[in-house]
Every structure is written in structure tokens, then in C-alpha cells.
Amino acid sequence: MAETVSALASVDAAERWVMTATFLAVGVCYIATGLALRPAHAAGRLILAAGAGVGMLVAAFPQSADGGSLLHAIWASAGFCALTVWPAAAWRRGPGVPWALRPAVCAIAAAMLVLLLAWFAAEVVTGAGHAGLAERVLGLAQAAWPLTVVLSCRHLARAAPARPPAPPEPAAA
Fold this sequence. Notes:
The chain is mainly α. It has one domain (5-157). It is built from six helices and no strands. Helix 4 (70-90) packs antiparallel against helix 5. The mean pLDDT is 89.
């Protein structure tokens, strides 16, 4: 509950390769989602993919053995921020927009992620002892939202009425 996932990938961690591979795999998944999520606004997709790329730099610049690393902190902060705000830039208007990409829903999702990020930041700054828990809850929420958006897009695609068949060609005389 107290240790962040960065501690599991720190320079002196026993099995740091596991978390390093996880950071990279999750980043690749977010980038793929950002590229494939066509119903979302391009700005949101770009922020999601950029946040993933920046988050992957966390693996390239692991936390040092003493827990401090400026580059690690910069990349981790930038990644968390991008993955928090992307819903605010992904929304669309219109009758055919999946429910998870509607403005009000995206605003609520972004607000919830901001609150979770604020909790995590407060835990890190105050040393209250629950930074690991706060980070895991934030990470779970950040992972759940792209999945929710994808599922809402798939639901809309399945619910769309089939095209009526084309009218028959007139017979040649």
C-alpha cells in the first residue's frame, strides 16, 4: 500500500524486469488504442498515445535505489497527467457518438481521474503511507477508461441498423 510501482522497477529491485516489461507493454497497448480509436476526437487520441509514450520513458529512466530520480519523476508525472486529461480532449458531439465519448461523460471521467491524481499526489507529497494504493487505484481507472470507450464504440457499432439492401437493377430490354 505504501510503495509505488516505480519502486518495483527501481534500479535495485530484485525482479525489475517484470515491471519494466509491464510499463512497455501497457504503453504499447495505449498507443494502439489511441491509433485505433477513430470515433474519439484526434486531440484526445494524440494525448492518449503521447501519454503512453511518455509513460514508457518511466521504464527507460527507472527510480534510483535511494528513491529519487528527477527524470523518472518528470516522465511519470507527464504520463500520469496525459492519461488523466485525454478524456477531456476526446469527446465528440452528434447523434452517432458512442456514449463514452459524449461531452458530459468525458467531463465526468476526466474529473474523476483528476481527483484520483490529486489523491496520489497528496499521498506522495505528504508521505501519508498510501501512495502505492492511490497509484494503483489511479492506474486502474486510467486503464479502465480507454477500455470503457472501446466497449461503448463496439456496442454502438453492433447496435447500428444494417443498411437496407440496394434496389434491384432494372432489367435490360
